[in-house]
Amino acid sequence: MSLRYLSARLAQQIDDELTSAAGAFSLDQLMELAGLACAQTLAKVYDSAKFNRVLVCCGPGNQGGDGLVAARHLSMFGYKTTIYMPKPGTKEIYQRLHTQCKNLDIATLPADSESFRDALASSDVILDAIFGFSFKGPIRAPFDDALPLLSQSRLPIVSVDIPSGWDVEAGNEAGVGLNPDVLLSLTAPKEGVRSFRGRHFLGGRFVPKSMDEKFQLNLPAYPGYEQIVDITEATQKL
User: Fold this and answer.
1) Is 90 exceeded by the pLDDT of residue 27?
2) Distance between CA atoms of 30 and 18, rounded to whole angstroms?
3) What's the pLDDT score for residue 120?
4) 121 forms bridges with which residues in the sheet?
5) More confident residue, 81 or 111
6) Residue 64 to residues 53, 68, 127, 159, 218: CA-CA distances in angstroms?
7) Which residues line the annotated binding site?
8) Cβ neighbours around 24 below 10 Å, total
9) Contact 124/150 with Cβ under 8 angstroms?
10) What are phi and psi of 95, to 5 degrees?
11) Which residues are part of a known binding site for (6S)-NADPHX?
12) Predicted confidence band of residue 238 (pLDDT cuts 50, 70, 90)
């Protein structure tokens, strides 16, 4: 059976169940596992010997938290990681994750566009963790300036869960979203990425078999100790 694509409502329902008394996961745990999967995806496709300088772009929500976790792991994998936060998150968990990065001497850019342009010119690959599956357009400041600059950089982009600017169900029909080379879907692919034709991975080795069966996700097996599985071939047949 083929992988199930998730609507916004179903994706939220699964997240809620994972963090419920029945699922028993904390938000910290899920962010840690998701961020590790993000870092592993980028490292698998973009070797640190050639693509050492990674610009991690984080939004203010849980997606940005995943990005901060990924930045920490990438730094420990040997990448030179820099964080860009057009609008930093205010939640306590976000602040703690950012402090963990600062403790590893991971630089955070000033929020001005000149610093961002300079960072793009001196980066090898971008991790896009700006908007998650709850994003609804239009794109507002300061992200309305950041996304075009990311696209214009022509750097390879790895997007987390759904490319920033894409609607979780309608995809990039507005034409304002990023067009990444690599996508890491978390838990299961979202409806809006059916048209994505780049390298596609799945991360979410935290989903129990009972939940997989309950929601008929038809998740593939993860190889060995990997936190990700390549679903490019499976998704491009659909």
Assistant:
1) yes
2) 9
3) 96
4) none
5) 81
6) 19, 6, 10, 11, 27
7) 62-66, 128, 132-138, 161, 164
8) 10
9) no
10) -65, -40
11) 62-66, 132-138, 161
12) low
**Residue 43: alpha-carbon gap to chain centroid:** 14
Residue matched to tokens 């703690």: 96
What digits encode the pLDDT tens for the residues 62-103? 999 999 999 999 999 999 999 999 999 999 999 999 999 999
The overall average pLDDT reported for the chain is 94
In 3D space, the residue among 67, 64, 42, 65 whose CA is nearest the CA of residue 53 turns out to be 42
Kindly report each contact of residues 86-91 with a partner whose C-beta sits within 8 Å and lies 24 or more positions away, as own/partner.
Answer: 86/57, 86/59, 86/111, 86/130, 86/142, 86/143, 86/146, 87/59, 87/60, 87/111, 87/142, 87/143, 88/58, 88/60, 89/58, 89/59, 89/60, 89/61, 89/64, 89/65, 90/60
CA quadruple 179, 60, 161, 31: dihedral sign = positive
| Binding-site residues for K(+) | 63, 128, 164
The two tokens of residue 61 are 């929500």
- Domains along the chain? 8-236 (3.40.50.10260)
Q: Which residue bears the tokens 């997240």?
A: 15
